[in-house]
Amino acid sequence: MRRARVPRYDIFHVSAENGVAFLDPLIESWDIDLATFGLEIVLTTASSRAGEAIRVCRAEAEQPVGEEPGLKEFLQDSSLSAPRPRRRSSFSSG
Domain boundaries in the chain? Predict the structure, then answer.
């Protein structure tokens, strides 16, 4: 049995033209509130349920985010870092 090759696309490295070609059929309308930087995107009925919208807005965290113990441990692990090279003096003797 022979497998069909399907091209892989990297969604993080898409040109503006290809992004527009992909997103344009999916988006009915969009609106941005410049005061809050809130963004509302209304999807087409072909790509979602009727009237479905995506709303994105910036909000403050409910609780302050503390430092993760795993991150602190990772940053303090000297076996994960290379030794620093010795710096040469920027002036010559003589």
Answer: 30-57
